[in-house]
């Protein structure tokens, strides 16, 4: 009996010591930043605030790539933290462990260049204070549970080259101030619940190469001014509620490789100007309310490997478009999912689907990936 009692006491004591040890390893308090640290006190306090706001303690157990966030360890060894000189320049964390919210105190990281917090469970809104981090070149918060609107203050990030807020639960309009981010090459806002129209100010982003706004609740017309984005490679507006006609000015996007306007409420004819997009590899216009003939000069699109026009109200003879495209396929290419089409297509909601596939081939209807690599 005496031995059993002593054994239970020993197990309890050992468990308590282990718990205290674990707590000590994870515990960070603001007071630890006071005094001599390799980085400015304000940056130390910003990291502490982020740690505590996103769960702290055992929430961080699955963080890899460096040592634990312990004030006794060098800051440069903390998982996801990069220190250059005496400044924190990168905070990059990809995990499903983090919860909580991004604290306003994040603005203490004044020389931050990259902020990446992806594939996690962060909630709450995006703090407006991020707009004061004017040295940022990359802001990636993809695949979280962020809510609320996109802060207009992000327009102050004129050094930013990539903004990825996709696959969250963001609502409200796209701020027109985003058009002020003059260095931006990638704008990815897909997979949210954004509403309102596409701001015409986005046409001011002269360096933009990738514009991804699909899978939202955007409405109104596609701004004709987007035709001035002379460096654009991808334009994805799939699965919104966009209306009106397809701007003829999109035919001015000489570098464009993918144009995806499917699953909207677009009306009118397919602009013949789209036949000028010599570098286009994918043209998806299916599931709209388009009418009239398929422009014959689409046969100029000799780089095309995907063409999807089904579920519209198109009419006319499609052979003038289809035959040259088939002939232009590289040796060994395959034509898949071709329907038996009559020479004259009646003005009916007849499915019109033909997809030309080269090389190893693409799926007949490309699966929409919820996330893309941030580095291209």
3D architecture notes:
By secondary structure, the protein is an alpha/beta fold. The protein has a single domain (87-357), classed as Leucine-rich repeat, LRR (right-handed beta-alpha superhelix) (Alpha-Beta Horseshoe), CATH 3.80.10. Helices cover 12% and strands 21% of the residues. It has three helices and 21 strands. The protein has an eleven-stranded mixed beta sheet with strand order 1-2-3-4-6-8-10-12-14-16-18, with no helix packed on it. Strands 5-7-9-11-13-15-17-19 form an eight-stranded parallel beta sheet, with no helix packed on it. Strands 20-21 form a two-stranded antiparallel sheet. β1 and β2 (87-94) form a beta hairpin. The radius of gyration is 26 Å and the shape is elongated. Mean pLDDT is 80; it is low at 1-31 and 332-376.
């Amino acid at each position: 009996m005496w031995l059993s009692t002593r054994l239970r006491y020993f197990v309890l004591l050992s468990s308590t010591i282990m718990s205290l040890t674990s707590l000590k390893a994870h515990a960070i308090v603001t007071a630890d930043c006071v005094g001599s640290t390799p980085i400015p006190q304000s940056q130390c306090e910003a990291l502490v605030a982020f740690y505590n706001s996103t769960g702290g303690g055992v929430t961080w157990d699955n963080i890899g790539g460096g040592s634990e966030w312990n004030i006794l360890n060098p800051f440069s060894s903390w998982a996801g933290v990069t220190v250059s000189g005496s400044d924190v320049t990168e905070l990059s964390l990809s995990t499903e462990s983090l919860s909580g919210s991004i604290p306003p105190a994040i603005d203490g990281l004044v020389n931050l260049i990259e902020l990446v917090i992806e594939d996690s469970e962060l909630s709450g809104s995006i703090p407006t204070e991020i707009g004061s981090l004017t040295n940022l070149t990359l802001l990636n918060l993809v695949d979280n549970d962020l809510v609320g609107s996109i802060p207009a203050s992000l327009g102050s990030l004129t050094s930013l080259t990539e903004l990825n807020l996709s696959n969250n639960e963001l609502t409200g309009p796209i701020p027109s101030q985003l058009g002020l981010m003059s260095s931006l090459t990638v704008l990815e806002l897909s997979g949210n619940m954004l509403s309102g129209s596409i701001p015409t100010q986005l046409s001011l982003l002269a360096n933009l190469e990738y514009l991804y706004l699909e899978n939202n609740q955007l409405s109104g017309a596609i701004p004709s001014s987007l035709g001035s984005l002379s460096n654009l490679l991808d334009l994805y507006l799939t699965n919104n509620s966009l209306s009106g006609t397809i701007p003829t000015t999109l035919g001015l996007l000489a570098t464009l490789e993918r144009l995806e306007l499917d699953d909207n409420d677009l009306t009118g004819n397919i602009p013949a100007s789209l036949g000028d997009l010599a570098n286009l590899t994918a043209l998806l216009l299916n599931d709209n309310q388009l009418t009239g003939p398929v422009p014959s000069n689409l046969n100029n699109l000799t780089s095309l490997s995907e063409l999807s026009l089904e579920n519209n109200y198109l009419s006319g003879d499609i052979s003038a478009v289809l035959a040259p495209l088939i002939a232009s396929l590289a040796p060994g290419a395959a034509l898949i999912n071709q329907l038996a089409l009559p020479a004259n297509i009646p003005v009916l909601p007849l499915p019109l689907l033909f997809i030309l596939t080269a090389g190893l081939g693409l799926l007949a209807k490309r699966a929409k990936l919820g996330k893309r690599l941030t580095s291209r």
